Amino acid sequence: xxxxxxxxxxFAAWYxxxxxxxxxxxxxxxxxxIVKTHCVGKDVxxxxxGTGMILKEVAPIAQSAKGIDISPGMLEQAKARxxxxxxxxxxxxxxxxxxxxxxYSFKVLAHIEDIRQVMNEVARxxxxxxxxxxxxxxxxxxxxxxxxxxxxxxxxxxxNDEEVYTRYDTLADVKSYLPDTLKVSQIxxxxxxxxxxxFHKLPVVKSIFKSxxxxxxxxxxxxxxxxxMVVHVEKADx
Length: 238
Known about the structure:
By secondary structure, the chain is an alpha/beta fold. The protein contains 8 helices and 7 strands, in the order H-H-E-H-E-H-E-E-H-E-H-H-E-H-E.
């Protein structure tokens, strides 16, 4: 097991190898679309912004868009994109109280052990009436099942995806992590039907799965089975 900074520094060089097409691009599209409408003209923070794949889409429409990540290796690419990013930890955010209208995080929170402290920090930096879109790994999903059965996948020449702390959470778990000032308002489910990334490389089949994933993301029934569970929380007004 590696610490998060070492793991993601190792991963940085390979991180975007498959992110610009197929399955991985679809996941990014589904996630980005969830937050973009909330970010127009707002002060926005991304926790775990990585190389800036989502932040670069948000920045042009936001009043201000900042990103934080524990990995200097990842941030080299985000900085090359001209994004406002810095090295830091989600458990100790280097921002003043009530700094942001919107906070969002994808593919990150499941890898942070002290998740309650992260939720406290999210609540602290959100403005009253602000919202956060926070993604967790869902054990009640096809992805959760496959992750239990599959072999490790290389993320660099020296590292695989089993070498980082990973936690799977039910919605009840997520609610238990939230301070009293944050309340769940909506759930989205990303990657509901896709059994493997390979299916998004097959003609016709990929179009079917793409349509299914867009439909399922916001379905009151199917969203509960998303491998990536995106929980909208709102901070109480002052």
